[in-house]
Design goal:
14 helices
Length: 424
């Protein structure tokens, strides 16, 4: 007796044979698959014997597996798992769902059905029209033999990347020798060089990417920058470099820009972001929880006690091992105040005990008010929107975005706290 086929799991690739021709589908779950099917209403036998004559258009369909394979044998065949990491199941299924109903032309359905499911499971980009092309600021993961290379997409088919170092001199045959890697702008096709590649903005769920204009500006500034590095280290540095450009996360790498006086620093704590204002010489000023309740820098301390304290501390102490970045996110719509005014008010606030409110006066409100004289918090705004979506509050009477109402209440809180000289 032949072995029973492996029971497919959501995200699996299904391969089946009909009239000596292969066809592919992606298993969604509950007996359903997503696949690229014939648009015209003819039988499989008629199609494969008259491929060009009958039809050259396909449509992505969601159908029961049993209706697609009929009585033909099939198998689970995730044949590229050993070469490429697959997407998360959520991303695979959401992409497949988005593609249902999409129409496309083809010259060989057997080939394109395979390319289609490979794209759904692994995200690998090919020349077919169902592949979503990179957008400016996207991270590009390129599968070189033995390792992955990374670049960031600029637009118009160009990328910026940390090109591999090229050893020189008598020891050029030893890749352990340090040599110079250079940030280069090049055509994507030249960097890919016929290797598989995909868009992989892998940290978007954890760190919001910087605005595209800031990403592109940072990319332009880095072109031509050199770094002495070993080839083995370059394999990981190229990803760190591209990730830095998209998210702005600061590390000890030489390509990371250091904060300047008056910059706002965003720290990614577990479950929330903490904010501070960079003063100078490695110090920040921030609205922080008191030290004598639930441990240092714990947001629950301020929430529970209802107050926080303005502190001046070394940046390295505030980081606490968390990722962080410079994020002057309101610069595009509000001009920063004069640096002398920012630093004066920041220093005058040191040691002050202030009432604390997650919605109207938190560490982010404090930092934005110092830099712009506008107390605003993205986190507070987003929280209000969540409450509105859950019908827990009614903001229908507020004119304009929710943030405007938050700004008004936060500015009032700022005047009560007496943060800025002369504000009243």
């Amino acid at each position: 007796m032949p072995p029973l086929p492996k029971e497919p799991q959501p995200g699996d690739l299904i391969e089946f044979t009909y009239n000596n021709s292969l066809h592919w589908a992606l298993y969604e779950g509950n007996g359903y698959v997503v696949h690229l099917a014939l648009k015209c209403d003819i039988s499989w036998g008629e199609f494969f014997s008259n491929m060009v004559k009958w039809c050259n258009k396909g449509v992505v369909k969601r159908e029961l597996l049993k209706d697609v394979v009929k009585k033909n044998p099939y198998r689970v065949n995730n044949f590229l798992d050993s070469q490429y990491p697959q997407w998360s199941l959520n991303k695979i299924l959401s992409t497949a769902k988005r593609k249902v109903g999409e129409e496309m032309e083809y010259s060989d359905l057997r080939k394109i059905s395979r390319c289609f499911v490979i794209y759904l499971r692994y995200g690998l980009i090919c020349k077919e029209q169902f592949c979503e092309l990179p957008k400016s600021g996207d991270l590009i993961e390129i599968f070189y033999k033995g390792h992955q290379h990374w670049a960031i997409f600029e637009g118009n088919d160009y990328v910026v990347h940390l090109a591999p170092p090229k050893p020189t001199g008598l020891l050029s045959m030893f890749w352990s020798q340090k040599s110079t890697a250079v940030v280069q702008r090049a055509l994507l096709k030249d960097v890919v060089n016929n290797h598989s590649h995909r868009v992989n903005n892998h940290s978007d769920d954890t760190f919001p990417p910087l605005p595209v204009n800031k990403i592109l500006s940072a990319m332009k500034k880095k072109i031509g920058q050199e770094m002495r590095i070993e080839f083995s280290a370059w394999k990981t540095k190229c990803e760190v470099f591209a990730t830095y450009l998209r998210y702005g996360l600061i590390t000890k790498e030489p390509f990371c820009d250091t904060p300047k006086s008056g910059d706002m620093i965003e720290f990614f704590r577990t479950g929330y972001q903490h904010w501070a204002l960079y003063e100078e010489d490695g110090y920040v000023i921030h609205l922080a929880p008191p030290d004598d309740f639930l441990g240092k820098q714990h947001i629950i301390s301020s929430v529970a006690l209802g107050f926080a304290v303005v502190k001046r501390q070394p940046l390295k102490e505030v980081v606490q091992g968390c990722p962080y970045r410079v994020n002057n996110y309101l610069d595009g719509c509000h001009s920063p105040r004069l640096l002398k005014d920012i630093l004066r008010d920041a220093k005058n606030s040191i040691g002050k005990k202030m009432d604390y409110s997650l919605l109207h006066w938190n560490c982010e409100h404090f930092a934005t008010y110092l830099r712009y004289k506008i107390a605003y918090s993205v986190q507070a705004d987003n929280f209000l929107r969540v409450l509105q979506n859950k019908k827990m509050i009614d903001i229908s009477g507020i004119e304009g975005p929710v943030c405007e109402e938050v700004v008004k209440k936060s500015a009032k809180a700022c005047r009560i706290q007496g943060v800025c000289a002369g504000c009243g």
